[in-house]
Amino acid sequence: MNAIELLELINKGENYHLEFKLEEENNEDFARTIVSFANTDGGKILIGIDDSANIVGVSEVDKVMLRLDDIAINRCDPPITILQESVTINDKFVVIVHIEKGSQRPYRTKSGQYYVRASNRCRQASREELLRIFQSTESLYYDELPVNRASLSDLDYLLFRNFLSKYLDLDTENEDDLKYYLINFHLLTERNIPTITGILFFGKDPQKFLPESRIICANINGTDIGEPSLENKEISGTIPNIISNVESFFKNNLREKHNIKDFLPETEYEIPLTALREAVVNAIAHRDYTISGPIRIMLFTDRVEIHSPGKLPNTVTVESMKIGGSHVLRNPTIYNILVKMKMVTDLGSGVRRIIKLVKEHTNNEVELISTENEFIVKIPRK
Which residues contact 32 (CB under 8 A, 6 or more apart)? Predict the structure, then answer.
């Protein structure tokens, strides 16, 4: 970096990826900032710049650099690799510390605290943010966590027995056998506490423990969310029940025509139900359950929108999804049960199948939108 580039950086002010510091600040404060950048999206620390963006400089470049290396290695857990350089402006030395987004997240300071970047400052990570970081590095799968307020009595044994019989050809009423299968499908912990997946599929009242697991459906009389709704529906229950009820919502509100085939009427909906069902199942399987918000389905007069909480996981991109090149699982246990129930295939081709079905049936293109907070599938109506 040269002097002109540094001045341009300083003129932008502190932001999500940039922080100013003086060398007098304590080691713990430097460690917090390094950890917050590594836990979030990476960034730079400019040492020798005060909070008003004045160039103060540092006393000894080598001394500052050695100190920052020591902080990154010995006061951050796990140790963080940083890159440093110095630039001279008006005979004043500024040290630039480059911190990459860490591959071993989450990081914490020596005092045991986790920090993330928020706007132009660092703050302690919330429980939900930590869970998302663990998820993104595949060191923890949220759907396998125990629901500590639940007990074995909150699971419906009859539902689980029917699942074993119908999809795995296993018939048993022995409670010890049922516990064995529940534990090995990661639906129950060794301490007999149901997991998130166990409650979602086989809970007697899933929303009692996981209120975000419902789906909100709205049939809107217009093309904007501000238009009046013809029908609003909150769908809850186990995942199989939710999928079935969402399908009924679509059947009740989509336009349809009747063709005669072999002397019998055959209903054809304006959008293939198979494509809509695939989109809903994908949303349920891949949403971020650490976010306290439901999946939203909005039926506008010109399109259907399915909003799934959470940004795309890890290396998944919209383009890779379109060609069926992504199969990164945020919720592998949920996905595994859906595979067993034959609601998804284990190929990662769901989005490609949706695009193909809609194109063949309506000659329209499906739009996929990824934001920081949600993933949206837009399917045009005829």
Answer: 109, 113, 115, 122
Separation between Cα atoms, residue 281 and residue 288, nearest integer Å? 14
- Whether residue 281 has pLDDT greater than 80: yes
Please say which residue of 125, 157, 186 terminates a domain.
125
- Bridge-based pairing of strands 295-299 and 215-220 is parallel
| Beta strand extents in the chain (DSSP E only) | 18-21, 43-47, 76-77, 82-89, 92-99, 108-109, 115-118, 121-124, 215-220, 229-235, 256-261, 264-269, 295-299, 303-309, 367-370, 374-380
Quote the DSSP letter at residue 144: G
Which among 169, 11, 170, 2 has a CA at the least distance from the CA of 86? Answer: 2
DSSP 157-196: HHHHHHHHHHHH------HHHHHHHHHHTTSB-TTS-BBH
201 in a structural domain: yes
Q: How many whole angstroms separate alpha carbon 149 and alpha carbon 143?
A: 15
pLDDT tens digits, 37-61: 999 999 999 999 999 999 999 999 9
Beta bridge partners of 256: 269
Average pLDDT in the chain? 90
DSSP letters, 194-236, are BBHHHHHHHBSSHHHH-GGG-EEEEEESSSSTTSPEEEEEEE-
259 Ramachandran zone, left/alpha/beta (phi>0; psi -120 to 50): beta
The phi, psi pair for 194, rounded to 5°, reads -60, 145
Same domain, 168 and 293: no
Residue type, 225: I
Residues 192 and 254 in one domain: no
Residue 265 pLDDT level (bands cut at 50, 70, 90):
low
Picking from 254, 247, 253, 255, the residue whose alpha carbon sits closest to that of residue 215 is 247
